[in-house]
Specification:
With 318 residues, the protein is an alpha+beta fold. It folds into three domains: 54 residues, Arc Repressor Mutant, subunit A (Orthogonal Bundle); 200 residues, BirA Bifunctional Protein, domain 2; 45 residues, SH3 type barrels. It contains eight helices and 14 strands. A seven-stranded mixed β-sheet has the order 3-4-5-9-8-7-6, sandwiched between helices. It has a five-stranded antiparallel β-sheet with strand order 13-12-11-10-14, with no helix packed on it. Strand 12 and strand 13 form a beta hairpin. It is globular and about 75 Å long.
């Protein structure tokens, strides 16, 4: 599958492109092109093949364009955007070389990660998979509630882009709520931190968002186009990055307090009866009553209120 993405770049859904043209442009043999495009289905892409004409996409592919995204951010932005066709993990790549304001997006991740070591699999042309490095001047104790604040920034931006039914699940999930299917996961956030205890602290904020629902998943998933999204991937990523840049600057000065009410207004499970399960499998039952000032979860149980910090707990409906 080494050359598959490169070969797919030459195809569109409007007309056939011959394997000979692709081979000449990439300096490959016709056999290599044929082998590469035979692996297209591994990326969820269906091709039409016609003898003597070549290959055509069954559906258009919306590729990311770093120059277009950068231009949309404007000259005043501190963000610098790069796009990779394929990588192991954008978070892993940025964590190895953190630099304030750097953004790394990928068309495809081989080992994308979510919270608690779970895998995150997107779809080629139907996901946004990106990471943003941001350095905060204070220590790690100033970052309480950051995953929730980021979730609020993303949710508000998606709602402004026309997506109806965006909800948030503590501590780092974006959900799409539809009348037909209820709440399903449409995105997630993974934040990794490195730096001095007293500051500065470098964070790598990894984000995965489904525009189309993945074909294979171990959980209920949704794509934002179901909720009314009409923006293409480049326009949406530009808007999300602009919102994150402004929001992270605000978080530096005001902390989670500036985002708490926005997050709670989109809380998918507000007032729900839930079980909070720890890594050993022990469950604590209660009713979700809101958040604390630092983004911890308030759980009202039979023995009073318990404050749940993110850690490695799993939140499930009772």
């Amino acid at each position: 599958m080494t050359h598959t993405l490169s070969c797919l770049r030459f195809l569109n859904a409007a007309q056939f492109t011959s394997g000979a043209v692709i081979a000449e442009q990439l300096g490959l043999s016709r056999a290599s092109v044929s082998t590469a495009l035979a692996a297209a289905e591994d990326f969820g892409i269906t091709l039409e093949r016609r003898h003597g004409a070549g290959y055509r996409l069954s559906q258009p592919l919306d590729w990311l364009d770093a120059a277009r995204i950068q231009a949309a951010l404007g000259t005043g932005s501190a963000l610098r955007v790069a796009v990779l066709p394929r990588t192991d993990s954008t978070n892993k790549r940025l964590t190895s070389e953190p630099a304030h304001g750097h953004v790394l997006a990928a068309e495809w991740q081989d080992t994308g990660r979510g919270r608690m070591g779970r895998s995150w699999q997107g779809t080629l042309g139907g996901s946004l998979l990106f990471s943003l490095c941001w350095t905060f001047p204070g220590g790690a104790n100033t970052l309480a509630g950051l995953p929730l604040a980021v979730g609020s920034m993303l949710a508000d931006t998606l709602a402004a882009a026309g997506v109806a039914g965006i909800r948030l699940k503590w501590p780092n999930d974006l959900l799409l709520d539809t009348a037909e299917h209820g709440c399903r996961k449409a995105g997630g956030i993974l934040i990794e931190i490195a730096g001095d205890a007293m500051g500065p602290v470098s964070t790598v904020i990894g984000i995965g968002i489904n525009l189309d629902a993945p074909r294979v998943s171990d959980q209920a998933v949704a794509g934002l186009r179901e909720g009314g999204l009409v923006l293409d991937r480049n326009a949406l990523l530009s808007q999300l990055l602009a919102a994150l840049e402004a929001g992270l600057q605000r978080f530096e000065s005001e902390g989670f307090a500036a985002f708490r009410s926005h997050w709670e207004a989109r809380h998918a499970w507000a007032g729900a009866s839930v079980n909070v399960v720890d890594p050993a499998g022990n469950a604590r039952h209660g009713i979700l009553t809101g958040l604390t000032g630092d983004g911890a979860l308030r759980l009202a149980g039979a023995d009073g209120e318990t404050i749940i910090h993110a850690g490695d707990v799993s939140l499930r409906r009772a």
